[in-house]
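name: query_chain
kind: protein
chains: 1
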Amino acid sequence: MLTSLHIRNYALIDQLNVDFNNGLTIITGETGAGKSILLGGLALVLGKRADLTQIKSKDKKCVIEATFDIAKYNLKGLFSTLDLDYDVQTIIRREILPSGKSRAFINDTPVTLDSLVNLSEYLIDIHSQYQTQQITQDDYQFQVIDALAGNKKNLEDYQVQLKTYKKFQKELEELKDSKADMVKEYDYNLFLLKELSELNLESIDLEALETQYEALNNVEEIGERLGNSKAIINTEDVGIADQLKSVRQELNKISDFGKDYKLLVERIVSVDIEIEDILVELDNLHENLLTDPHELEKLNSQLQIVNNLFQKHSVSTIAELIEIKDLLKQKVDNTENLDELINQKETEITDITKRLDQLALQINQGRNKAIPLLVKKLEHILNDLGMPNARFSVEVSQSENYFQNGKDSLQFLFTANKGSNFNTLKKAASGGEMSRIMLAIKSILAEYIQLPSIMFDEIDTGVSGEISHKMGEIMKQMSAKMQVFAITHLPQIAAKGDAHFKVFKEDRNNVTLTNLKRLNEDERIVEIAQMLGGLDLSDSAIAHAKQLLN
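structure:
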């Protein structure tokens, strides 16, 4: 419920702070007093787009803040979905800056207008004459029937299944659309896959192949260099080995003269041992050199194939070729298994279609069961509201199509007069009749679902006398289960309120301002008396006002 409203610097409102209670709250005021301004400010805080012209003083920001008690609304899940901090006393603030920029906050967290609109639908319903046309729409009529039918769980399950059904249908269409292209590419992909698979890429060590190829391709030069190296080391008298031996002999003669000389000898011995090892290795390498033209040709051919594949696929490593091979295999497998995939997807669609049909049937049965009850309640309420001949003809029938709320088509027909043919609400009901029908529907819905606070904006237009009294009674009954606001010009309805506010204009410092005041008991008597008889109060108007209030 709306517990408080604060408006600053909006239209003709300089500063307004007002608290509200549960029950039925009445708002009255002369035409042009500013009731539409109050509604406009509330609409802004609920997500309506801002307009710079709505700022009263152009050099100050406009601020509208509303506090809602949402303890009974079960909105924790919605707050989580919108990534908002949940608080049973939720504060929504809207700011319009002089620059024209608009900002919105929920519990001091900045939010987008979309988030604000999503939340506001669960908080308050501002119902104007224009919104009465909502009852002529199939979607809304189904919502009313489903509320009485208790179809909420079945509808939620149906919509989950429908989402999956549409996903599977899209996947099936994509498979069928891609089948022709995949078949065209199949032969080429199979050729490329075979070419890569024959090479056994996983067993190829490219670096080792290149090293082996270089060794075979340069065997003569390698042999020559190995022989020269052995000669340099091992040539008598001038080779490294003999020269090193001479150095050792010279140093041995002075090794007893100091530790440093002895260490040098040890190092020369180490070098001598290493040279001997190198010489053995040179001998082994030289002796094991092979000249194998056939192996060289084989290696050259293998490297050439790899390099050609690198060039063909625009890659530079074996790993990338393996990745391409795996992708080609997947494409080939998909093509080869395409009919199987299509059959599998069709089976999945058949299964989910059965679940959808079952849920749609349950929804349909619930609706058919609820319709007689809805018609009975509507006709009873409308009889009290001065429409004794109002009759409804409501039928739902299953179609072959899957809609968002089931498979049903709807005929919601109405006649207000005896002997008249049934027709759609839009064509058969006048504006005043439509208002009464909407009030009846809202009062019925209040029995079955947790409605947000509702504000009726002159829903009583076109009615008077005993009918307005009955409308007031209905609003009063609704207010036992929810917070109800009624903006009205009728004293019979105004007298039903648990609280009564008056919108009025006043001149302050040569500036006209709109304000809102909560009336006490005596002020209510005066206000209702003026609604009955005008500004010149008569004793009879006062007496009638007291009678209405009592």
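note: The longest strand covers residues 391-403.
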